[in-house]
Amino acid sequence: MQQNNTISKSKPAVTLRLAFAALALIVFAGCDLPHSNAPAEHGSLRITISSQDGMQPLTLLPDASMEPAFYAISGSGPFGESFETTTSGGAAEISGLRAGEWEIEVSAVNAEQTEIGYGKSTVAVEPGGQAAVSIAVRPLSGTGSLSLWLSWPADQVSAPAVTASLTAPAGQPQPLQFALDQAAGTADYHNAETEAGYYTLALQLTDDGAVIAGAVETVRIVRNGHTEGHFSFDDLNHPTGTVDIIVSPDMEDPLEVQIDGAAAVVAYGESQSAAALVTNADGAELDYAWYLNGSHVGAAATVVLDSTLQRGSYRLDLVVFAAGGSRSGSASHSFQVE
Question: How confident is the model at residue 51 (pLDDT cuts 50, 70, 90)?
Fold first, then answer.
């Protein structure tokens, strides 16, 4: 653990500044402030930092790194006393603090010197004792930008339309309005002020009202970051008859997700099953959502696609959320019915 502490006895409490944090990180490495002769009305404080709510990103990701390089810590206490320090680990010890109530603020800073997370708490320092406080550092609230591009073979689609939505955990779908260029076979969407958080992105490409392609992905938005996704629908499924799809309501969660057991080619009139494989759930309760060409078809760890699928190209998508929506991931599998 690298740590550098500065305590002020007279200046007012200050707000964390990333310029200070970047400078303080390279000044010197230490453990505790040398206050062995601190008077009895002073005490010490141990700060433990935890990164929560998915500081590590997943599927459609923002351009900014969400991996903390170090933490900038400041505290303001009785009689205008304050301190500032940085640590590259998950804990810091501050000694020589005047007894009383202290407000502690922590900013997570990435390798590009950008603040990516924040947390604060209050703690009472007792004379001659050591107080302890645990501070959860969470991603910053605010807005970021989202850009999406779709493409398809223009000569194969006569009346294209895009149906799309973003859905937050436990939220309602927010429709997205795409700008279409029918001659080029493209569509795009841009929003510079999307609320930070995880979302399920659902896309469907239709031709004269019939769904011919679809995709579902997990999307992450962070404050002042830019997230973008490109979708190429090269294999279109022009149905020759009616496809009956069984839809089970539920919105679910993942992280590092794989689809296991699905075949690349399925014989016409046969069914196939697939299973979700999440490699880093860490014991978290998971919810699952399966989509076939953008339509919801299952809400369990496994899914069975029945034998009524018509011949054509299909994309099976899986979205998984951890309980509370703090982490999410997705996977996809393309197959043919012949």
Answer: low
Q: CB within 8 A of 113, min separation 6: which ones? A: 18, 21, 22
Overall pTM surpassing 0.70 (yes/no): no
- The angle subtended at Cα 222 by Cα 216 and Cα 224, nearest 5°, is 130
End-to-end CA distance of the chain: 59
| Predicted confidence (pLDDT) per residue in 169-215, tens digit | 888 999 999 999 999 999 999 999 999 988 999 999 999 999 999 99
Q: Which two tokens stand for residue 76?
A: 């303001």
Give the closest residue to 66 by CA, choosing from 138, 148, 166, 169: 138
325 backbone φψ class: left, alpha, beta (φ>0; ψ -120 to 50):
left
Domains detected in the chain: 3-139 (2.60.40.3540), 143-337 (2.60.40.10)
